[in-house]
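Bumping with the actual sequence this time:
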Amino acid sequence: MIASNEDHIRTLITELDNVDHDVQQSAAVQLIDLGKEAVQLLIQALTHPSWRVRYLAAWTLGEIGDERAVEPLIAALRDHNTDVQDWAAKALGEIGDERAVEPLIAALDDADSGTRRNAAAALGWMGDERAVEPLIKHLHDADNLVRGSVSAALGALGDRRAVPQMIDMLDDADEWVRIRVAKALGRLADPRATTALVAALQTDRDWVRYNAAWALGQIRDGSAFQPLVDALSHDSPHVRRGAVEALGRFGDPRGIDPLKDALVADPDDGVRAAIYDALKQLGH
C-alpha cells in the first residue's frame, strides 16, 4: 500500500466517526470500493476507541469479504458494544468462512437480541449443518425477530429436522414470525406442513396467508389444490396472487379453468398479470 493511499484510507476511517450520517456512509462506501487495499487498516479499526468506527469497520469488512478479517471479526463478537457485535456477526456470515461457525453458534446465546438475530441469519447463509441443532434449540427465543431469523436460517439450511416445531410456530403470537416460518416451510418443501399451511390460509393477516400459499406451491401436495382454488375468490389481492402463483407451480391442468375464470373476474391488475404467468406455466 503506497503512503498516499494509506493516508487516504486513514482519513476515511476517521470520517466513520463523523456524527453526520451522510459523511459516515460516504466514507464507508469509498472504503468498500477500495476493497482489499483497505482491509488491514479496517481490521485495525475494529479496536478503535469509537464504537461508530468499530461497527462501520465490521460492516465494510463484511461487504469486502476478505478472509483476513475472519479472526478479528470473531473477536469483535465479544465487543462490549452491541452494534459492533451485531455487525460482526453479519459480516462473518457474508464472508462465509467455516472458522466462524462455532463462534456464531455460541453467539446464539448472547444477551443482545440483535447479535442472536444476526448470528442466526449468518449461520443460514453459511449452509453448515453443524448449525441445525443449535438453531432448533433457539426456535422459541423470547425475541420475535430472533425467532423469525432462526426459522429463516433453518429453511435456508434445507434440513427437515425442525419441521414439526416450525409447524407449531405457525400459531406464533407474532405476525412476522408466522410469515418467516411459512416461507421457511415452503423452502423445506415437507408435505407434513401442508395441513397447517392450509389452515394458515384462513388467518386474518394477508402476508401470512400469501406466504402460506407460496409455501403450498413449493410443496405441491395434492390435498392443498382445492383450498388454493378456493382462495382465488379471497377478498385480499395478496392472497389471490399467492394462490395463483401456487397453482401455476402445481402443474395440475385442473387449475386452468379456475384460473381462466379468475382472469375475467379479478379486478386487480397484479393478480391478472400473475394469472397470465400461471396459465403459461400450465401450458395454456
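The C-alpha cells above came from a reply further down the thread. The chain is about 70% helix and 0% strand.
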